[in-house]
Amino acid sequence: MVTNDVATEIETDRDSSDVQPERGTDLDGPEPQDAADDVRFRLLMAGFPTGVTVISTLGRGQAPMGMTCSALCSVSLGPPTLLACLRAGSPTLAAIRRRRVFAVNLLHEAAQPVAELFGSGAPDRFDRVRWRIEPSWGVPVLFDDVHAVARCRVVDSKLVGDHRVVFGEVTHIRHYAEIRSPLMYGRRRYAGWPAG
Questions:
Q1: Phi, psi at residue 76, to the nearest 5°?
Q2: Where are the domains of the chain?
Q3: Which of 193, 167, 191, 169 is closest to 179 using CA atoms?
Q4: Do 135 and 153 contact (CB within 8 A), yes or no?
Q5: Which residue, 154, 135, 143, is CA-closest to 94?
Q6: Which helix (H) or strand (E) holds 39?
Q7: Each residue's pLDDT tens digit in the chain (196 positions)?
Q8: How many whole angstroms separate alpha carbon 101 and alpha carbon 57?
Q9: Closest CA to 66 of 80, 84, 42
Q10: Contact 67/84 with Cβ under 8 angstroms?
């Protein structure tokens, strides 16, 4: 999400004491049947389709590491920065925090098996896909299964609940010659981005 600086400045200049509740607003909070819990939150987010990526890096001994991630968004155009939310206990996250670089592999519509594989935690996942380390990038790229890939340098991270938000400044981008639609995930199913 790229923010509009002018709108942000206008919004932050307002004094919160000037904001009055709308008529009919329940100041006591939501009704008990509307309270957020794990099930309701998962259902809410399932209704927000998103692209699917594999976040990858190198671990100890140059071993490739990677995991499926759909919690990704742009943060800034200058410098180009994105964020990815990764499970706090993930070995891939631990490797990213050590190496300070990672790749965002944007999966294409035929890569559902790869998304499922890298979401499974299977220890042999890199043995079951084609990948390479791009010269000067220093991170694994799943070149058969992506429509685009970005190399990122970690600039910050923040622990939020059971996930860590990793901010990456994008240093390299490659689009692949064969244009394929992005893989999407929503309502607990995969689909290609509609043509046209």
A1: -150, 150
A2: 51-187
A3: 193
A4: no
A5: 154
A6: helix 38-46
A7: 444 433 333 333 444 445 555 555 555 666 667 888 888 888 877 767 799 999 999 999 999 999 999 999 999 999 999 999 999 999 999 999 999 999 999 999 999 999 999 999 899 999 999 999 988 899 999 999 999 999 999 999 999 999 999 999 999 999 986 678 999 998 888 988 886 5
A8: 7
A9: 84
A10: no
Whole-angstrom CA distances from 118 to 64, 65, 165, 196 are: 12, 10, 19, 29
Q: Which residue has the tokens 């709308």?
A: 22
Which H or E run contains 31? none
- R_g of the chain, CA atoms, integer Å: 19
Helix, strand, coil abundance in the chain, percent, nearest 5: 25, 40, 35
Residue 43 tokens read as 């259902």
Out of 2.30.110.10, 3.90.1170.20, 3.10.310.70, 3.20.20.80, which CATH number does the structure's domain 51-187 have?
Answer: 2.30.110.10
pTM of the predicted model, to two decimals?
0.80
